[in-house]
Amino acid sequence: MAVTDFFAGEIATELLKQLITISRKSASCRSSAEQLIVYIRELLPIIQEIKLTGNELPQHRQRQLDTFSQALSGGLELANKVLNSPRWNVYRNIRLARKMEKLEKTISRFMEGPVQAHVLADVHHVRVDMEERFDRLEWQLGAMKIGADGDGGWLGAAVKRVEEEQRWCEDNLVNLGGTGLELGKMKLKQMLLTEEFSVVGIHGIGGIGKTTLAREICKDEEIKSYFNNRVFFLTVSQSPNVEQLRSRILGMVTGNTIVGHGDRSPQMNLRYDVGASARVLLVLDDVWTQSVLEQLLIKIPGCKILVVSRLKFPPSVVNCSYELDLLTENEAVSLFCHFAFGQMSIPLDADKELVKQVVDECKRLPLALKVIGASLKGQSEMFWTSAKNRLSRGQPLCESHEVQLLERMKLSIDYLSERERECFLDLGAFPEDKRIPLDILINMWVELHDIDEQEAFAVLVQLSDKNLLTLVKDARAGDKYSSYYEISVYQHDVLRDLAIHLSNVGSVNQRRRLLMPRREAGLPKDWERHVDEPFSARVISIHTGEMSEMDWLRMDCPKTEVLVLNFASDGYFLPPFLDNMPKLRALILINCSTSNSVLHNTTVFSSLTNLRSLWFEKISLPLLPDTTIPLKNLQKVSLVLCDISKSVNRSAVDLPHLFPRLSELTMDHCINLTELPSSICQMQTLKSLSVTNCDSLQELPSDLGKLSFLQILRLSACPNLRRLPPGVGNLIQLKYLDVSQCVNMGCLPEGIGGCASLEKIDMRECPQMRSLPVSVASLPSLRRVICDEEVSWLWKDVEKGRPGLCQVPQECFTLDWLAE
Q1: Does the pLDDT at position 176 exceed 50?
Q2: Would you say the C-alpha torsion 52, 58, 61, 66 has a positive or negative sign?
């Protein structure tokens, strides 16, 4: 008997003990641990019998057993890592779960492969049917995306944590025991509740809590009562569309929502008379220049304006302004401890002096305290000491507070893993003060960092837990997590500044990201000076107004994989250097103007042979000629606020030819979309079809049931859609059906019971839904139905056999979502 045989038995015994502990304590690795326990319990008597026989195995068979013994040793080391991994470190736990699955497959191959046949055939026979093993990770991702498990997994939990933090801030930030926000709130109320001032300001450095204070003012009962609940909040930002903002302000103040949300803005009527009793409070947040502010100020009786800015504007513009001070020492300690320890004071077992030193180095800036506190949560004392030392080596006191803040916030980025850090820096590619659709961000990370969607979601949750981004749920979703389609990402402008600051290190040509922080008339001069050499950037983000062919530089970008084009114009000439982007995989076009933009130079798409993801926002799609070259690698297309009447509405357009590998198609708020082209039913690669907020859509193609691989069908907020085609019942792979806010839909198709894989139906706000087809009772996989109270009784008979099937979300009456 070889020594290996003995150690294999010892290692397997120890590994079995660890796996039993993992199966009890680790949710992410439980399934793999349980399966490995089964394998090893079957292997132990086999190894024992080999040891007892005392026979030497042939050399080549002994080598096989040696390899297996090494696999067990690696498994034991992996099991120790799993048990020592903190539960809050989602990304690390996902990686460990993947390794556990890999170990499981290794052991199963040993059980089924030649080793079993040659080494163990005469001793013990093991039968394992791996084909019946459920693909756990894929199911977890699917459940998270569609919310089939009711809470959305990590993503739903992360959103709940954000909401809890927001509630905590609302309850505590203005009552931390010192001056700060409480004093500011009192003084601002005095200014706003008198007739003396029409324009009031809050000013202070970035990250000090100006927006938090402004939002507290908006929620104050005395303020709401004084202004008759007519309190409006509007974000201006560094690169505002003044015309659009003027239009929205006029609509808010006068109550004319049609004027406020129209495509074109009329001249601001500075003397519009709505009566002195019609009090209105308008909050203009994140104002950067006096010239922009002066264009947005209106003079209407009863209207007061609260301006939030880093600048103190002269009294001729802002009548009086309150400067928000830094937190007091006690306030700073309380805020930091909440995010670092989950309590309002320093724990008894913590090094009090060390904690106070770290708080001091955060310079009493709320955002720094929040982010750095979260980054140190659960870390060792040695880690804390290192953090304190690095903070103390930051910028000297002669530097501005903004620079100090960036330098201190950099610490929280340095402690991220390499992948998390890169994903955080990618956030600098998006416009400030705008919500980033989750789909854009996940696609971007998948393409850039060679990770799958599940790892991208894990990174997202990690960054959220460290307060480096905020997950925001659509206000219309109510209190229930429905799906990841209702989640977007928001980032504080200081954190965005930090991402850009860190990305702009090094020479322009060698940077991994070329980012324009704000909208400019043309491309940066720094880029122009280096245009003679190739740019190595993998991500390029350009923020301009209207661009003609002559406005572009001839840039050579051989490594660029993601291009983000933010612009504001009625017409836009696509950059000619798209021809020099052979590796481009994701193209994002976001038009911020008040009307849809017509694209020019669309022939460049023929050169984008590796393009996999395309996002168009507020674009008038061109007529697609019959000679259009197919985009053979394109897998995801998203059209938001687009006019597609000239392209997609054409019944003759051959979508399977143009996009032979398309798996996800999203159309949201699309203008003049009355019907989908019939050729969409021939797209056999399509897994997700989302047509939402399209008020002109009246019917779906009758052959929709031919989409045999379709898993997600979203038709939310299409008010003129009255029915689904009968063929929907043939969608045997369909997992998620969303017909919420289809206010004129009267019933589900009779054959819906044929959707054997359907896990979730969302039918909120469908008041015309009066009956259900009998076949719903035969949906074998149905686990969740989201509906209103009036509709839930239709499911009573089905729910008898499936308790808890229906979820009735709390109604949400806020109109805050209109601002987006």
Answers
A1: no
A2: positive
pLDDT of 136 > 70? The answer is: no
User: Percentage helix, strand, coil, to 5, in the chain?
Assistant: 45, 15, 40
Could you tell me which of 650, 702, 707, 659 has the C-alpha nearest to residue 682?
707
Mean pLDDT of 666-691: 91
Q: What's the pLDDT score for residue 475?
A: 52
pLDDT at 256: 61
Tell me how far CA of residue 566 lies from CA of 43, 160, 517, 605, 616, in angstroms: 60, 31, 11, 18, 11
| pLDDT score at 126 | 30
Distance spanning both ends of the chain, measured CA to CA: 72
Mean pLDDT on 518-532 = 90
Mean pLDDT on 495-521: 89
The type of residue at 531 is V
Strand ranges, E, within 293-387: 303-309, 320-323
List Cα–Cα distances, 431 to 331, 452, 498, 527, 564, in angstroms. 32, 25, 14, 19, 10
* SS3 per residue for 575-633: CHHHHHCCCCCEEEEEECCCCCEEEECHHHHHHCCCCCEEEEECEECCCCCCCCCCCCC
Q: Is 319 exposed, middle or buried (0-12, 13-18, 19+ CB in 10 A)?
A: middle
Q: What is the pLDDT of residue 47?
A: 59
Query: If you ran DSSP here, which 8-state letter would residue 119 be given?
Result: I
Per-range mean pLDDT, top range of 100-104, 196-200, 324-328, 576-580: 576-580
- 263 within 8 A of 595, measured Cβ to Cβ: yes
| CA-atom Rg of the chain in angstroms | 30
Does residue 790 contact residue 784 with C-beta atoms inside 8 Å? no
> Of 112-121, 141-150, 275-284, 426-435, where does mean pLDDT reach its minimum?
112-121
Q: Which residue has the higher pLDDT, 682 or 21?
A: 682
**Bridge partners for 586 per DSSP:** 562, 613
CA-to-CA separations, 270 to 84, 295, 300, 624, in angstroms, rounded: 65, 11, 7, 45
Give the DSSP per-residue string, 180-247: HHHHHHHHHHHHHTSSS-SEEEEE--TTSSHHHHHHHHHH-HHHHHHTTT-EEEEE--SS--HHHHHH
User: Which tokens belong to 4?
Assistant: 């290996």
> Mapping DSSP to helix (H, G, I), strand (E, B) and coil, where does residue 520 land?
strand
User: What angle is formed at CA 470 by the lines to CA 465 and CA 471, rounded to 5 degrees?
Assistant: 95
For residue 393, pLDDT over 70 is answered with no
Q: Is the pLDDT of residue 34 over 50?
A: yes
Per DSSP, the three-state class of 739 is: coil
CA dihedral 188, 189, 194, 199 (to 10 degrees): 40
DSSP tag of 173: G
Cβ atoms of residues 677 and 650 within 8 Å: yes
